[in-house]
What we know:
Elements: H1 3-7, E1 17-25, E2 34-41, E3 47-53, H2 64-72, E4 76-80, H3 100-113, H4 115-121, E5 129-139, H5 141-149, E6 153-154, E7 172-176, H6 188-193, E8 200-201, E9 209-214, H7 231-234, E10 240-245, H8 268-285, H9 291-299, E11 308-312
Parallel strand pairs: 3-4, 3-5, 5-7, 7-9, 9-10
Antiparallel strand pairs: 1-2, 2-4, 6-8, 10-11
Helix pairs in contact: 2-8, 3-5, 8-9
Amino acid sequence: MTASQMTGLTDPPFTPTVSVKPVVLPAPYRGEDLPVRVSAPVTGTNLPIVVFAHGFGSHLDGYAPLVDHWASHGFVVIQATHLDSRRYGLPADDPRRPHLWRYRVQDMKQILDELDHLEASVPALAGRVDRSRIVAAGHSFGGQTAGVLVGLRVMDPMTGIAQDMSDRRVMGSVQLATAGRGGDELTPFALENAPWLLGQDFSHITAPGLVVAGDKDELPLSTRGPSWTTDPYTLSPGGKSLLTVHGGRHSLGGIAGYEAAETTDEHPGRVALVRQVTLAYLRHVTGIDHTDWETAQVALTGDSHPLGRLESK
Length: 313
Protein backbone atom coordinates (compact mmCIF):
# COMPACT_ATOMS: atom_id res chain seq x y z
CA MET A 1 0.00 0.00 0.00
CA THR A 2 1.36 3.42 -0.95
CA ALA A 3 1.60 6.41 1.37
CA SER A 4 -1.19 8.11 -0.56
CA GLN A 5 -3.47 5.08 -0.10
CA MET A 6 -2.74 4.99 3.63
CA THR A 7 -3.30 8.67 4.30
CA GLY A 8 -5.43 9.97 1.46
CA LEU A 9 -2.82 12.70 0.89
CA THR A 10 -0.43 13.02 -2.03
CA ASP A 11 3.16 14.15 -2.43
CA PRO A 12 4.69 16.27 -5.18
CA PRO A 13 7.13 14.54 -7.56
CA PHE A 14 10.37 13.43 -5.95
CA THR A 15 13.99 13.90 -7.03
CA PRO A 16 16.97 11.58 -6.38
CA THR A 17 19.15 12.74 -3.52
CA VAL A 18 22.76 12.68 -2.43
CA SER A 19 24.11 12.62 1.14
CA VAL A 20 27.61 13.47 2.33
CA LYS A 21 28.94 12.54 5.77
CA PRO A 22 30.72 13.21 7.94
CA VAL A 23 31.59 16.80 7.28
CA VAL A 24 33.54 17.71 10.40
CA LEU A 25 33.19 21.19 11.85
CA PRO A 26 35.34 22.65 14.63
CA ALA A 27 33.40 22.93 17.89
CA PRO A 28 35.77 23.90 20.74
CA TYR A 29 32.83 24.91 22.96
CA ARG A 30 31.85 21.24 23.41
CA GLY A 31 35.25 19.58 23.52
CA GLU A 32 34.59 17.43 20.44
CA ASP A 33 34.50 18.20 16.74
CA LEU A 34 31.00 18.36 15.27
CA PRO A 35 30.20 15.67 12.66
CA VAL A 36 27.51 16.70 10.19
CA ARG A 37 25.54 15.00 7.44
CA VAL A 38 24.14 16.97 4.48
CA SER A 39 21.37 15.54 2.27
CA ALA A 40 20.12 17.33 -0.82
CA PRO A 41 18.28 16.75 -4.10
CA VAL A 42 20.58 16.31 -7.09
CA THR A 43 18.68 18.93 -9.09
CA GLY A 44 16.87 22.18 -8.36
CA THR A 45 17.81 25.70 -7.33
CA ASN A 46 16.87 28.08 -4.52
CA LEU A 47 16.68 25.08 -2.18
CA PRO A 48 15.49 25.87 1.37
CA ILE A 49 17.34 24.42 4.36
CA VAL A 50 16.13 22.27 7.25
CA VAL A 51 18.49 21.94 10.22
CA PHE A 52 17.38 18.82 12.09
CA ALA A 53 18.16 17.93 15.72
CA HIS A 54 17.91 14.28 16.70
CA GLY A 55 16.34 12.88 19.86
CA PHE A 56 18.34 11.99 22.97
CA GLY A 57 20.91 9.31 22.19
CA SER A 58 20.48 9.29 18.41
CA HIS A 59 22.91 10.54 15.74
CA LEU A 60 23.28 12.06 12.27
CA ASP A 61 22.29 8.82 10.54
CA GLY A 62 18.84 8.70 12.12
CA TYR A 63 15.38 9.79 10.98
CA ALA A 64 15.68 8.56 7.40
CA PRO A 65 11.86 8.34 6.99
CA LEU A 66 11.72 12.12 7.34
CA VAL A 67 15.12 13.30 6.14
CA ASP A 68 15.09 11.29 2.91
CA HIS A 69 11.54 12.41 2.18
CA TRP A 70 12.24 16.10 2.71
CA ALA A 71 15.48 16.01 0.70
CA SER A 72 13.85 14.18 -2.20
CA HIS A 73 11.23 16.92 -2.38
CA GLY A 74 13.49 19.93 -2.59
CA PHE A 75 15.12 20.60 0.79
CA VAL A 76 18.71 20.60 1.95
CA VAL A 77 18.60 18.73 5.27
CA ILE A 78 21.50 19.11 7.70
CA GLN A 79 21.96 16.82 10.70
CA ALA A 80 24.60 16.74 13.43
CA THR A 81 25.53 14.22 16.09
CA HIS A 82 24.98 15.98 19.41
CA LEU A 83 26.95 15.17 22.57
CA ASP A 84 24.14 13.15 24.16
CA SER A 85 24.43 10.59 21.34
CA ARG A 86 25.13 7.00 22.33
CA ARG A 87 28.06 7.25 19.92
CA TYR A 88 29.88 9.38 22.47
CA GLY A 89 28.83 7.53 25.60
CA LEU A 90 29.50 10.42 27.97
CA PRO A 91 29.92 9.06 31.51
CA ALA A 92 27.44 10.12 34.17
CA ASP A 93 30.01 12.35 35.85
CA ASP A 94 31.08 14.18 32.69
CA PRO A 95 30.94 17.91 33.54
CA ARG A 96 29.33 18.63 30.16
CA ARG A 97 26.16 16.72 30.98
CA PRO A 98 24.25 19.60 32.67
CA HIS A 99 24.92 21.70 29.57
CA LEU A 100 23.81 19.20 26.92
CA TRP A 101 20.76 21.26 25.97
CA ARG A 102 22.94 24.36 25.42
CA TYR A 103 25.58 22.52 23.39
CA ARG A 104 22.83 21.33 21.06
CA VAL A 105 21.74 24.90 20.34
CA GLN A 106 25.37 25.90 19.81
CA ASP A 107 25.75 22.96 17.40
CA MET A 108 22.87 24.26 15.32
CA LYS A 109 24.29 27.78 15.29
CA GLN A 110 27.68 26.41 14.29
CA ILE A 111 26.03 24.68 11.34
CA LEU A 112 24.47 27.97 10.27
CA ASP A 113 27.82 29.74 10.66
CA GLU A 114 29.52 27.12 8.47
CA LEU A 115 27.02 26.96 5.60
CA ASP A 116 29.70 27.94 3.09
CA HIS A 117 31.76 24.90 4.06
CA LEU A 118 28.76 22.56 4.21
CA GLU A 119 27.43 23.70 0.85
CA ALA A 120 30.84 23.18 -0.76
CA SER A 121 31.10 19.67 0.72
CA VAL A 122 28.27 18.30 -1.45
CA PRO A 123 29.10 17.86 -5.14
CA ALA A 124 27.29 20.37 -7.36
CA LEU A 125 25.34 21.91 -4.47
CA ALA A 126 27.21 25.23 -4.34
CA GLY A 127 25.05 28.11 -5.53
CA ARG A 128 21.79 26.15 -5.34
CA VAL A 129 20.87 26.89 -1.70
CA ASP A 130 18.55 29.65 -0.48
CA ARG A 131 19.90 30.74 2.89
CA SER A 132 17.02 33.14 3.44
CA ARG A 133 14.69 30.17 4.00
CA ILE A 134 15.87 28.09 6.97
CA VAL A 135 13.59 25.98 9.18
CA ALA A 136 14.66 24.27 12.42
CA ALA A 137 13.19 20.83 13.10
CA GLY A 138 13.71 18.16 15.72
CA HIS A 139 12.27 15.16 17.54
CA SER A 140 11.94 14.82 21.32
CA PHE A 141 15.03 16.52 22.85
CA GLY A 142 15.66 17.83 19.35
CA GLY A 143 12.27 19.51 19.37
CA GLN A 144 13.40 21.61 22.30
CA THR A 145 16.58 22.45 20.39
CA ALA A 146 14.57 23.61 17.40
CA GLY A 147 12.26 25.56 19.69
CA VAL A 148 15.12 27.48 21.29
CA LEU A 149 16.21 28.69 17.86
CA VAL A 150 12.80 30.33 17.34
CA GLY A 151 12.39 31.82 20.81
CA LEU A 152 11.80 29.13 23.43
CA ARG A 153 13.42 30.25 26.67
CA VAL A 154 15.04 27.49 28.72
CA MET A 155 16.07 28.14 32.30
CA ASP A 156 19.67 27.02 32.67
CA PRO A 157 19.70 24.52 35.56
CA MET A 158 23.15 25.74 36.62
CA THR A 159 22.46 29.48 36.69
CA GLY A 160 18.68 29.76 36.96
CA ILE A 161 18.74 32.22 34.04
CA ALA A 162 16.62 31.87 30.89
CA GLN A 163 18.29 33.82 28.12
CA ASP A 164 17.23 34.44 24.55
CA MET A 165 19.20 32.05 22.32
CA SER A 166 17.02 32.41 19.23
CA ASP A 167 18.58 32.89 15.82
CA ARG A 168 17.22 35.38 13.30
CA ARG A 169 18.36 33.18 10.43
CA VAL A 170 15.64 30.62 11.31
CA MET A 171 12.19 31.45 9.93
CA GLY A 172 10.09 28.66 11.47
CA SER A 173 10.10 25.30 13.22
CA VAL A 174 8.79 21.75 13.18
CA GLN A 175 8.72 20.20 16.68
CA LEU A 176 7.96 16.50 16.90
CA ALA A 177 6.95 14.78 20.16
CA THR A 178 8.81 17.29 22.27
CA ALA A 179 8.66 18.50 25.86
CA GLY A 180 6.07 20.74 27.47
CA ARG A 181 6.28 23.08 30.42
CA GLY A 182 8.19 22.23 33.57
CA GLY A 183 7.35 23.14 37.14
CA ASP A 184 5.57 20.73 39.46
CA GLU A 185 4.36 18.58 36.53
CA LEU A 186 7.83 17.12 36.07
CA THR A 187 8.59 13.71 37.54
CA PRO A 188 11.59 12.96 39.79
CA PHE A 189 13.07 11.11 36.81
CA ALA A 190 12.91 14.30 34.72
CA LEU A 191 14.44 16.45 37.44
CA GLU A 192 17.34 14.03 37.77
CA ASN A 193 17.98 13.30 34.10
CA ALA A 194 16.73 16.39 32.26
CA PRO A 195 16.89 19.35 34.69
CA TRP A 196 16.83 21.75 31.72
CA LEU A 197 13.09 21.06 31.47
CA LEU A 198 12.32 22.70 34.81
CA GLY A 199 11.66 26.16 33.42
CA GLN A 200 10.49 26.48 29.81
CA ASP A 201 8.81 29.64 28.54
CA PHE A 202 6.97 29.33 25.21
CA SER A 203 5.58 32.86 25.19
CA HIS A 204 8.41 34.33 23.09
CA ILE A 205 8.01 31.95 20.12
CA THR A 206 6.62 34.28 17.48
CA ALA A 207 7.89 32.46 14.37
CA PRO A 208 5.45 30.11 12.62
CA GLY A 209 5.65 26.47 13.63
CA LEU A 210 4.18 23.00 13.35
CA VAL A 211 3.93 20.82 16.47
CA VAL A 212 3.40 17.07 16.06
CA ALA A 213 2.16 15.06 19.06
CA GLY A 214 1.02 11.49 19.58
CA ASP A 215 -2.13 11.09 21.67
CA LYS A 216 -0.65 7.95 23.31
CA ASP A 217 2.77 9.44 24.05
CA GLU A 218 3.21 8.55 27.72
CA LEU A 219 6.63 9.85 28.75
CA PRO A 220 8.34 9.33 32.12
CA LEU A 221 9.12 13.05 32.28
CA SER A 222 5.72 14.51 33.15
CA THR A 223 2.66 13.59 35.20
CA ARG A 224 0.40 15.15 32.56
CA GLY A 225 0.33 12.30 30.08
CA PRO A 226 0.22 12.78 26.29
CA SER A 227 -1.20 16.31 26.44
CA TRP A 228 2.19 17.49 27.78
CA THR A 229 3.73 17.29 24.29
CA THR A 230 1.10 19.69 22.91
CA ASP A 231 2.34 22.56 25.13
CA PRO A 232 4.63 24.03 22.43
CA TYR A 233 1.41 24.64 20.49
CA THR A 234 -1.02 25.61 23.24
CA LEU A 235 1.37 27.81 25.26
CA SER A 236 2.99 29.73 22.39
CA PRO A 237 1.49 32.74 20.58
CA GLY A 238 -0.55 32.35 17.40
CA GLY A 239 0.68 31.34 13.98
CA LYS A 240 1.10 27.69 15.01
CA SER A 241 -0.40 24.39 13.89
CA LEU A 242 -0.79 21.08 15.72
CA LEU A 243 -0.89 17.63 14.14
CA THR A 244 -2.23 15.07 16.61
CA VAL A 245 -1.32 11.53 15.56
CA HIS A 246 -4.01 9.07 16.64
CA GLY A 247 -2.47 6.16 18.51
CA GLY A 248 0.96 7.71 18.17
CA ARG A 249 3.53 7.07 20.85
CA HIS A 250 6.89 8.77 21.17
CA SER A 251 8.30 7.54 17.86
CA LEU A 252 5.13 8.57 16.01
CA GLY A 253 5.00 5.25 14.20
CA GLY A 254 8.74 4.94 13.62
CA ILE A 255 10.18 8.24 12.40
CA ALA A 256 13.52 7.67 14.17
CA GLY A 257 14.63 5.21 11.48
CA TYR A 258 13.58 2.23 9.43
CA GLU A 259 15.46 -0.13 11.75
CA ALA A 260 15.59 2.00 14.89
CA ALA A 261 15.48 -0.02 18.11
CA GLU A 262 13.74 2.83 19.95
CA THR A 263 10.64 2.65 17.78
CA THR A 264 7.73 2.46 20.22
CA ASP A 265 4.76 1.98 17.89
CA GLU A 266 5.78 0.71 14.48
CA HIS A 267 3.04 1.83 12.11
CA PRO A 268 3.72 2.72 8.44
CA GLY A 269 0.51 4.73 8.20
CA ARG A 270 1.51 7.06 11.03
CA VAL A 271 4.97 7.54 9.54
CA ALA A 272 3.43 8.31 6.15
CA LEU A 273 1.08 10.84 7.72
CA VAL A 274 3.86 12.61 9.61
CA ARG A 275 6.20 12.82 6.65
CA GLN A 276 3.47 14.03 4.28
CA VAL A 277 2.10 16.68 6.64
CA THR A 278 5.55 17.90 7.67
CA LEU A 279 6.59 18.16 4.01
CA ALA A 280 3.40 20.04 3.15
CA TYR A 281 4.10 22.40 6.04
CA LEU A 282 7.73 22.94 5.04
CA ARG A 283 6.66 23.76 1.50
CA HIS A 284 3.99 26.11 2.88
CA VAL A 285 6.11 27.97 5.43
CA THR A 286 9.00 28.46 2.98
CA GLY A 287 6.63 29.72 0.29
CA ILE A 288 7.24 26.96 -2.26
CA ASP A 289 3.61 25.91 -2.55
CA HIS A 290 0.53 26.16 -0.32
CA THR A 291 -1.74 23.64 -2.06
CA ASP A 292 -0.67 20.47 -0.20
CA TRP A 293 -0.90 22.24 3.15
CA GLU A 294 -4.39 23.50 2.40
CA THR A 295 -5.39 20.00 1.30
CA ALA A 296 -4.03 18.52 4.53
CA GLN A 297 -5.91 21.06 6.63
CA VAL A 298 -9.19 20.08 4.96
CA ALA A 299 -8.54 16.33 5.08
CA LEU A 300 -7.47 16.33 8.75
CA THR A 301 -10.03 18.71 10.22
CA GLY A 302 -11.93 17.54 13.28
CA ASP A 303 -12.16 13.77 13.73
CA SER A 304 -12.73 12.96 10.07
CA HIS A 305 -9.41 11.19 9.46
CA PRO A 306 -8.51 7.85 11.10
CA LEU A 307 -4.81 8.68 11.49
CA GLY A 308 -4.77 12.21 12.81
CA ARG A 309 -6.18 15.70 13.32
CA LEU A 310 -4.75 19.04 12.21
CA GLU A 311 -5.66 22.36 13.81
CA SER A 312 -4.21 25.86 13.71
CA LYS A 313 -4.42 29.13 15.61
